[in-house]
Amino acid sequence: MIEILSPAELGRARVTGALVARILQALKGRTVPGTNLLDIDRWTKGMIAEAGAQSCYVDYEPSFGRGPFGHYICTAVNDAVLHGMPHDYTLADGDLLTLDLAISQGGIAADAAISFIVGGAEPAESVAMISATERALAAGIAAARPGARIGDISHAIGAVLTEAGYPVNTQFGGHGIGSTMHQDPHVPNTGTPGRGYTLRPGMLLALEPWVMEDTAQLVTDADGWTLRSATGCRTAHTEHTIAITEDGAEVLTLSKPGQGEDL
Predict the structure, then answer these.
(1) 169: alpha, beta or left? (left if phi > 0; alpha if psi -120 to 50)
(2) How confident is the model at residue 258 (pLDDT cuts 50, 70, 90)?
(3) Residue 19 and residue 190: Cα distance in Å, rounded?
(4) Which of 15, 1, 66 is nearest to 227 (CA)?
(5) 10-40 burial, b if ≥16 CB within 10 A, otherwise e?
(6) Known binding-site positions for a divalent metal cation
(7) Which residues contact 257 (CB under 8 A, 6 or more apart)?
(8) Mean pLDDT value across residues 5-24
């Protein structure tokens, strides 16, 4: 299913997107060496409830997971990259943490992810990998406009990741979003320009470049959800929800200076 949102629905999408951005920034600000992943999940649950919103993850039970997921946020550490299930793990200085959050409010969902280094350590390879996903996301957003094709976005993302030297996995990527978290079309993180679905104003897309340092192969944890690099290398993942407008793309989950401090 591909939804085209009305102006009123797009207004609600902006509200949801802003909430996702605020919560992610609040969580990043609270996360320090010694923070437990279960604390992050608990904080997320409280902030979603306080906002009168709903989690897209708690009851999520797709074919590729051992569901329901049962948690409020995905927490992926170091070699984990997608669908990281919160568990009893205490973060250490220098850990690479990805937080992936999807929320529904007013009947419209938004989805975003951030990767960052915990504490004061900044391993150069990890910083470069995070930067590559952020640049790839910016390139994908720049390619998103009415009349463009999904392949144009995928090609823009993949070109940045490949130039940075990272293998690209196409099993999981971006997706349509709207009244539900995951919709068509699938947006691979590499592709051929001029191919795929034609973008129209009112479409929402969640674009999410992610990479693993030296492999494109994933393995699944015993929890049935957490996806890790097959070689144990570090990973990074960055995501925004965007709306296709008459003029291009509007980023709905973009954080603002000081955002999250009031949560």
Answers:
(1) beta
(2) low
(3) 29
(4) 66
(5) bebbeebbbbbbbbbbbbbeebeeebebebb
(6) 100, 111, 175, 208, 239
(7) none
(8) 98
Nearest to 221 by CA among 59, 74, 9: 74
Average pLDDT of 110-119? 98
Q: For residue 36, what are its two tokens?
A: 């437990």
- Assign 3-state DSSP to the chain and report helix, strand, coil percentages, each to 5: 25, 25, 50
Q: Quote the pTM value.
A: 0.96
Looking at residue 263, its pLDDT comes to 57
pLDDT tens digit sequence for 178-225: 999 999 999 999 999 999 999 999 999 999 999 999 999 999 999 999
Q: What are phi and psi of 219, to 5 degrees?
A: -130, 155
Q: Do the Cβ atoms of 144 and 249 come closer than 8 Å?
A: yes
Residue 109's alpha-carbon distances to 43, 76, 129, 256, in angstroms, are: 20, 21, 28, 20
Residue 144 has pLDDT above 60, yes or no: yes
Residue ranges at the known binding site:
83, 100, 111, 175, 182, 208, 239
How many CA atoms lie within 13 Å of 28's alpha carbon, on the beta-carbon side?
21
> In this structure, what are the phi and psi dihedrals at residue 75, rounded to the nearest 5 degrees?
-125, 105
Q: Other C-beta atoms within 10 Å of 186: how many?
A: 16
Which pLDDT tens digit goes with each residue over 147-189?
Answer: 999 999 999 999 999 999 999 999 999 999 999 999 999 999 9
Binding site residue list for substrate: 83, 182
